[in-house]
Amino acid sequence: MHELKEKKVTDNTLLSNLDFAECFLREHPLCRWSMLLVKGNGLCVQIGNSKSHVFMVSSDSQQNTYINLHMYINSQICSEHILESHFFGHSCQDEIQCSSSRAREAVHESDLDRLTIKCNRFTIIFTNYRLYNHKTVETKCQLPLKTITVEGLLEKKIWLQKEKATCHGLIACIDHLIKLYLTTSDAPDSGRFILHADKEIIRIVSLGNLINRCIVM
């Protein structure tokens, strides 16, 4: 970063993504064995030369930052290749069945040469260079609550503001829910809310007894 500033690099997207990558990888257990590619607007910086673990950090026009991790394996992919360290620092948007569990389930069901897991702004790809059998798994955003309360909804709003900061419509939906629960004495403490905005869907689900009501917003 210091060298780029000395060279008067003016690609603010690149500099911002480098800052993000530094924070994300600072304590990452794979950092020392990885290559890092950071993309900006027309510029790309490579740090390290590993061929087995490759991180790529990029962003879109809405300033959403994306992390891609490519894991290159010398054999057919099996559950032993999928480690929790690969998902270090990632806050899975499916809090009912996490990304690593979905990945192990996918390789258990079929023999794969390439497996792609997409979860919010994080993508991890396991591949052995052969592309005969491949599968892509995309997680759904499911946020469970033991019972639906104002405190629980506030907790999910904090998660939403951190992990989907540019989804202003979804944040407005959950604000509406919080207001509803603050002002309505008989608001249900169980059920399922489906929030739809910003081309995304979030399910807030109570984990109590049988879910007998569903409200779409």
Care to describe what's here?
By secondary structure, the protein is of the alpha/beta class. It folds into two domains: 2-138, no CATH class; 141-216, no CATH class. The chain has five helices and eleven strands. The protein has helices at 2-6, 12-25, 99-109, 150-163, 168-183; strands at residues 35-39, 44-47, 53-59, 65-72, 114-119, 122-127, 134-138, 141-145, 192-197, 200-206, 214-216. The strands form two sheets. The protein has a seven-stranded mixed beta sheet with strand order 2-1-3-4-6-5-7, with helices on one face. A hairpin with a 4-residue loop joins β1 (35-39) and β2 (44-47). The longest helix is centred in the last third of the chain and has 16 residues, at 168-183.
Structural class: alpha/beta
Distance between the terminal alpha carbons, to the nearest Å?
A: 44 Å
How many beta-strand elements?
Answer: 11
The value of Rg in angstroms is: 20 Å
Strand content: 25-35%
Helix content: 25-40%
Succession of helices and strands: HHEEEEHEEEEHHEEE
Total domain count: 2
Q: How many helices in DSSP terms?
A: 5
Looking at the structure, what is the overall shape? globular
Outline the biggest β-sheet.
7 strands, mixed
Return residue spans where pLDDT drops below 50 for at least 5 consecutive residues.
none
Strand order, sheet with most strands: 2-1-3-4-6-5-7
User: How much is the average pLDDT?
Assistant: 90
